[in-house]
Amino acid sequence: MRLETRFKWLPAPLMSLVLFIVWLVLNNSLSSGHIFLATILAIVIPLVTSPFRTKQPIIIKPGLALRHLALVLYDIITANVQVAILILGPTKKLTPGFVKVPLDLTHSLPITILASTVSLTPGTVSAEVYPWRESLSEGEKLEQQFLLIHVLDLKDEQALIKMIKQRYEAPLKEMFQC
Amino acid sequence: MLETVISIVFAMIGLSLLLNVWRLLLGPSIPDRILALDTMYINTIALIILYGMSMGTALYFEAALLIAMLGFVSTVAVCKYLLRGDIIE
Amino acid sequence: MAEWIISILLLIGGSFVLVGSIGLVKMPDFFMRLHGPTKATTLGMASLLTAAMIFFSTTHTGFSVKEILISLFLLLTAPISAYMMIKAAIHHKLESIERTKGIDNIEDDV
User: What is the layout of strands, in order, in the sheet containing A146-151?
Assistant: First the structure.
């Protein structure tokens, strides 16, 4: 896991990129004036706000991140169709359930991304991450964190846990190298 | 053809807003009502975008963006209030 | 041609939004109700906004991509609001229906 970027004047390169693109898209133009203004905003805002932000891990493998994004988008589309069928079908047959997924990730940013992906994909909503880092007393070490998810139609618990760990957690682990 | 389709989709979204109001009135618990309100603001964005399309102006885009932002913040604020009894600690 | 694509996208989006709201009314307990809106509405809104994007790009002069911002914003915020709501529900100890498996897994530590 790496926290610092290589450039001093660009504390959050991804945030700068997002600011640049959002400014151009909001104004819906590619004129030189707007590009100039977007560049200034993309450099100044991360610099000014960097004292307020806590250091977040940096994506080390951007190619893998893009491929994972495409996979997640594909999964979101199929998930929506599946959930629509489940909702329109008979409600009596559904067997909902709470499943506890042990996490290998340790930092809060990858865990947040994992929880959001789980919420957006087939029939699952992430409910909680426990135990909380804040709830531990001083000096106590965090043993193992769990992600609690609610499943709309639970068929095979072990297969679901394995699927989440392989399909969504392993790429995140590799991409942040933690 | 587009006008017919737009009116059909208007009807669909109107129906889903009515269903949301039904859940909002029925409850039974407070999180249920928050969920109904959350769905309602998303459906309202759809309604505004559709209205802009049927009027043929892109002016309503800003209104939709504002509703999206305020709706998200208000959902989180109400949930936070339910969780802690306070919004800003 | 563009008109066809816009119409199909609009119908898909409208039906997904409708399915989400049907799920909101039909499901028996809060945790199951949450699934409908968080999923069905994100894709529904995404296709509606894509339709709007194509519509404004073809009928008005110039290219319009602003609508992508709303769908991205909704896609980013839907899991967060779902998480907040399910946390509030767990904190209020809402009943889930009897056949729910693994209720013992819930630990409330707010």
Answer: A97-102, A146-151, A124-130
Are residue A48 and residue A91 in the same domain, yes or no?
no
Please say whether the beta carbons of A115 and A103 come within 8 A.
no
Which range of residues forms the domain containing residue A137?
62-176
User: What chain C residue is nearest to B18 in terms of C-alpha separation?
Assistant: C21
Of A58, A84, A100, the domain-final residue:
A58
Same domain, A14 and A96: no
* ipTM of the prediction: 0.86
Q: How far apart are CA A27 and CA A34, in angstroms?
A: 8
Are both A84 and A46 inside the same structural domain? no
CA distance C3 to chain A (A): 23
In chain B, the domains with their CATH numbers are 2-84 (1.10.287)
Cβ–Cβ < 8 Å for A149, A99: yes
Q: What is the pLDDT of residues A58-116, one digit of tens each?
A: 777 888 888 988 998 898 888 888 888 888 888 887 888 888 888 887 778 888 888 88
Tokens at A33, concatenated: 């004036």
Q: Is A54 in the same domain as A69?
A: no
Interface check for B33 against chain C (CB to CB < 8 A): the answer is no
Q: Which residues of B touch C52 (CB under 8 A)?
A: 49, 52-53
Is the four-CA dihedral A68, A70, A74, A76 of positive or negative sign? positive
